[in-house]
Design goal:
Helix 2 packs across helix 3. This protein has 550 residues and is α/β, with parallel strands linked by helices. Strand 24 and strand 25 form a beta hairpin. The chain folds into three domains: 186 residues, 3-Layer(aba) Sandwich (Alpha-D-Glucose-1,6-Bisphosphate, Chain A, domain 3); 223 residues, Alpha-D-Glucose-1,6-Bisphosphate, subunit A, domain 3 (Alpha-D-Glucose-1,6-Bisphosphate, Chain A, domain 3, 3-Layer(aba) Sandwich); 134 residues, 2-Layer Sandwich (TATA-Binding Protein), CATH 3.30.310. The chain binds 1-O-phosphono-alpha-D-glucopyranose (G1P) and zinc ion. The site of 1-O-phosphono-alpha-D-glucopyranose (G1P) has 14 residues, from loops.
């Protein structure tokens, strides 16, 4: 085995987006594509590492969601890591680690950082997507400063340092070597499961299944399967088959592993049957997202965050209450009302989990969530699908209530925030950009303008002033806020790999309990029309409606 120095030429377009570098597999398999990016990452880490020592003597965690190209990418990254000074890698068996598990392992073993191989909820397979993301020593996604530095490096990288060692056996637990670098293949579930045992009352949950509580968890043929099976069916005694689509497949069995009512339609159909289980849930490709479903009753992620906040003290890990909560700007303001009542701080951040990291590290918040089916807490620095499922199960166990009755009671107490997200996918990039440019141009004239019974009170392009490190993130989405607390928000997706996706978020507040049972799309129809009127969505995109409305 020797370490080689191989010349390379920069490849355009390697800028990490909302959550790492995501591209089509066909792009990632191009010669040098992954190598250039990882070399650039290591160059930056070696230049900026702790104590000026960079990666020398450090340990990295490595694993992914098992999608197509995961196994090959692991081998390449190990060879680059060995040649760039890394001392030890903790590798999930089979190259598998869910995103929250990477975070948990980094934190538990207090290591330098980790690499997650995933394109999250994007479809997999040879024609699907692949992705890579770096997490820092706090277990959370790298800051924008670091990802921008990596991007800058990709534009000038000229040399790869890589070992020519043979591939290692990634399916067998235990120690192996690549050059001087130790690779320890670890059980992907063990550390994560130990953390869940600290937070939840496993005896209570075990008792629920023993008394006949029924549940259906759809792992969507993605990485959450082994975790859910080990914990729910293995430790908690749920009947076999509680976790469906539990075997991770390289193409997710052709499923689109995004836990929302559209993509997890099979779960929704099961939960609508007369013999539906008490509780249903789904996770995404890398198991950081979750969707929670009662009997014939879907819970929006925004409501989920609000309810978890309201009842957190019922869960052992949160029995002393919450330091504060945070939600991304487009997430509904339902949690704000709970935070107000609890007398705790509520932060509004730009889209993307990385913005929660500083707040969590600084001890300002305990729970956080996004409308995009992401919820998490200070236990790791990623959102966490199975954690959310165990949290909800704990609430059901502690209260003896159904999902639907808990949510309806919540609406009666706090009012209901009707909420939907409309995605316009596959829009031509120029058309989408032009829409945003035109929209930003009309913002100054909007405050005070009347639309039906509503008046615009605020129209701006959201900017975030990080209260911990003082960094400012601009242009994070256009928001229109009305005098009745309704909100209309526009932003372009930062995770897509084809064309542009316009996301339109619609929300209105309904305090009257007799008006809280309207079908969501109907309840928000006038706001959708208003959005089109202001932004000219149909005119710019040529589309008459969204491709997905959840
Ligand atoms: C989407 C979601 C966002 C989430 C991200 C990563 O990003 O909207 O909330 O953090 O995926 O899971 P977007 O495509 O909107 O940039
Ligand atoms: Zn994900």
């Amino acid at each position: 085995m020797t370490i080689q120095t191989i010349p390379t030429t920069p490849i355009a377009g390697q800028r990490p987006g909302t959550s790492g570098l995501r591209k089509k597999v066909t792009v990632f398999v191009q010669p040098g594509y992954l190598e250039n990016f990882v070399q650039s990452l290591f160059d930056v880490l070696n230049a900026t590492g702790q104590d000026g020592q960079g990666l020398k003597g450090q340990t990295l965690v490595l694993g992914g969601d098992g999608r197509y190209h995961n196994r090959a990418a692991v081998q390449t990254i190990l060879k680059l890591a060995a040649a760039n000074g890394v001392q030890r890698v903790l590798l999930g068996q089979g190259g598998i680690l869910s995103t929250p598990a990477v975070s948990a392992v980094i934190r538990k073993h207090q290591v330098f950082g980790g690499i997650v191989l995933s394109a999250s909820h994007n479809p997999g397979g040879p024609e699907g997507d692949f992705g890579i993301k770096y997490n820092a020593s706090n277990g959370g996604p790298a800051t924008e400063t670091l990802t921008e530095a990596v991007y800058a490096r990709t534009q000038i990288v000229r040399e790869l340092r890589i070992s020519d060692a043979p591939d290692i056996v990634i399916d067998t637990l235990g120690l192996q070597w690549v050059e001087q670098m130790q690779v320890e293949v670890i059980d992907p579930v063990a550390d994560y499961a130990a953390l869940m045992r600290e937070l939840f009352d496993f005896d209570l949950l075990r008792g629920m299944f023993a008394r006949g509580f029924t549940m259906r968890v759809d792992a969507m043929c993605a990485v959450g399967g082994p975790y859910a099976q080990a914990i729910l069916e293995g430790e908690l005694g749920a009947p076999r088959g509680t976790v469906v689509n539990a075997q991770p497949l390289e193409d997710f069995g052709g499923l689109h592993p995004d836990p929302n009512p559209v993509n997890a339609e099979d779960l929704i159909a099961h939960m609508a049957r007369t013999d539906a289980p008490d509780f249903g849930a789904a996770m995404d490709g890398d198991a950081d997202r979750n969707m929670v479903v009662g009997r014939d009753f879907v819970v929006t992620p925004s409501d989920s965050l609000a309810l978890m906040t309201a009842h957190a003290r019922l869960v052992p890990g949160y029995k002393d209450g919450l330091l504060g909560v945070a939600r991304s700007m487009p997430t509904s303001a339902a949690v704000d009302r709970v935070a107000k009542k609890l007398g705790i701080a509520c932060f509004e951040t730009p889209t993307g989990w990385k913005f929660f990291g500083n707040l969590l590290d600084a001890g300002k918040v305990t729970l956080c969530g996004e409308e995009s089916y992401g919820t998490g807490s200070s236990h790791v620095r990623e959102k966490d699908g199975l954690w959310a499922i165990l949290f909800w199960m704990s609430l059901l166990g502690a209260t003896g209530r159904s999902v639907e009755s808990l949510v309806r009671e919540h609406w009666q107490t706090y009012g209901r925030n009707y909420y939907t997200r409309h995605d316009y996918e596959g829009v031509a990039v120029e058309a989408a950009n032009q829409l945003m440019v035109d929209l930003r141009a009309v913002l100054p004239g909007l405050p005070g303008q009347k639309f039906g019974t509503r008046t615009v009170t605020l129209a701006d392009d959201f900017a975030y002033d990080d209260p911990v490190d003082g960094s400012i993130s601009k242009a994070q989405g256009v928001r229109l806020i009305f005098d009745d607390a309704a909100r209309v928000i526009f932003r372009l997706s930062g995770t897509g790999t084809e064309g542009a996706t316009l996301r339109l978020y619609l929300e209105r507040y309904e305090p009257n309990p007799t008006q809280q049972d309207i079908a969501v799309q109907q309840a928000l129809r006038d706001l959708a029309a208003l959005a089109d009127q202001v932004a000219g969505i149909a005119r710019h995109t040529g589309m008459n409606g969204p491709t997905v409305a959840t």
